[in-house]
Amino acid sequence: MSAPTAFSKLGIVLRHARASDLAFILATWKRRMRNVGDRALMTNRVYFDYEGKRIEGILARPEASVAILCQDPDSEHLLGYVVHQMHGPVFVLHFAHIKGVYQRMGLLTQALRLIYPPFLDEEIATTHVTPELAPKLNRYRIKYNPYL
Length: 148
Fold this sequence. Notes:
The longest helix is centred in the middle third of the chain and has 17 residues, at about 45-60. The chain contains three helices and seven strands. A hairpin with a 7-residue loop joins β3 (about 65-70) and β4. It is globular. The protein has helices spanning about 20-35, 45-60, 105-115; strands at about 5, 15, 65-70, 80-85, 90-100, 125, 140-145. Strands 1-2-3-4-5-6-7 form a seven-stranded mixed β-sheet, sandwiched between helices. By secondary structure, the protein is of the alpha/beta class.
């Protein structure tokens, strides 16, 4: 993805993340994963301190990329994002978030097909599984591997 690319009938655009997007990414990612799995057993202080550092570590990787979904390439109104990277030959979806009012429109699937055209045709990996993603792992050929 070199330049912002429109990809839906709604005119949604996919662009690279900017520094100004970081607060939204961190807040939504941490909030969404707060009570998933063993994270539910942690105190808020432990979870929010360490999970933020872990997410920032993923975002700082040179091979990691963040695609932002918005309605205009210059907009600061974000609809969602996809954090991903290639790990050797494997496409890794670290985390994706779509705002509630834009869910169930196929935007994430369309974005993933644009980012990684073999999506749905080839197996991919994910490092985070939300309750919404868990039942879809087999259908979308996604393997969970938190260690990538």
